[in-house]
Amino acid sequence: QVQLVESGGGLVQNGGSLTLSCAASGRTFSTYAMGWFRQAPGKEREFVTGISGRGRDTYYADFVKGRFTISRDNAKNTVSLQMNSLNPEDTAVYYCAAGRDPFFSGAYYYTSNYQYWGQGTQVTVSS
Fold this sequence. Notes:
The chain is mostly beta strands. 0% of the residues lie in helices and 48% in strands. The chain contains no helices and eleven strands. It has strands spanning 4-7, 10-13, 18-24, 32-39, 46-51, 58-60, 68-73, 78-83, 92-100, 116-117, 121-126. Strands 2, 4, 5, 6, 9, 10 and 11 form a seven-stranded mixed β-sheet that branches. Strands 1-3-8-7 form a four-stranded antiparallel β-sheet, with no helix packed on it. The protein is globular. The mean pLDDT is 96.
């Protein structure tokens, strides 16, 4: 069982930055691939970025490439999402998710491959 708790969301101006964090319980954190998803009102939950258990491989949705960076610290059981150049279209609830490794590269993009989810943190970008 893995419990995930996100933090770091908030209100930011267009062009600003935020860093989201996700803290995980358990002693086997490095055996889980981690992902960040987001869901805007009236829309489906969508993949943002993912990282392999040891942090060697990262994957990004096209709409965040060059703006967002995912990282993890397995010693601290945390995964972070640095978000730069935010725009109003990035407004959503952001969710952290964990899925048992190994993930093949295509698996990161689908919510069904993740067994554990956090409660989400709201990110609002004002124009």
